[in-house]
């Protein structure tokens, strides 16, 4: 199976920023400075600094493929780098909004 490309993961983040797909924060143990989210079955681990998203550490797609920051860095970018300033602000706003709501656990 081919790994996820940064562009594929970016498109998922973009769809959440545009309100096409909902972004849900997951109640899972992530490392310090990480947030786990679900976007229509796409599970992402985002590296955050306060309220600012810095990187996408890894992503699992609904079809079982996976991509990680190390894979994307070889090509000089990660999915968050493709987001426009407005799209990034929307993702950060959604994460902040989700933070106050009770998180849901994914089976």
In short:
The chain has 107 residues and is of the alpha+beta class. It has one domain (6-100). It is 35% helix and 27% strand.
Description:
The chain is α+β, with helices and mostly antiparallel strands. Residues 102-107 have low confidence and may be disordered. The protein has 4 helices and 5 strands, in the order αβββββααα. The protein has one domain. Strands 1-2-3-4-5 form a 5-stranded antiparallel β-sheet. The two termini are 24 Å apart.
Oligomerization category of the chains in this entry = single chain
Largest sheet: 5 strands, antiparallel
- Contiguous runs where pLDDT drops below 50 for at least 5 residues: 102-107
Query: What is the H-and-E element order?
Result: HEEEEEHHH
> Per DSSP, what share of the residues sits in E-state strands of 2 or more residues?
25-35%
Rg, Å, rounded: 13 Å
Helix content: 25-40%
**Number of separate domains:** 1
Please give a handful of descriptors for the protein shown:
27% strand; five-stranded antiparallel beta sheet; disordered C terminus; alpha+beta; single chain; 107 residues; 4 helices
């Amino acid at each position: 199976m081919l790994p996820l490309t940064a562009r594929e993961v970016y498109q998922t983040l973009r769809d959440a920023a545009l309100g096409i797909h909902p972004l849900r924060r997951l109640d899972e143990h992530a490392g310090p400075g990480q947030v786990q989210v679900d976007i229509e079955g796409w599970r992402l681990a985002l590296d955050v600094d306060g309220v600012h998203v810095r990187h996408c550490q890894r992503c699992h797609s609904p079809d079982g493929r996976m991509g990680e920051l190390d894979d994307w860095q070889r090509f000089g970018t990660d999915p968050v780098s493709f987001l426009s300033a407005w799209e990034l602000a929307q993702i950060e706003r959604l994460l902040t909004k989700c933070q106050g709501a009770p998180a849901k656990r994914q089976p």
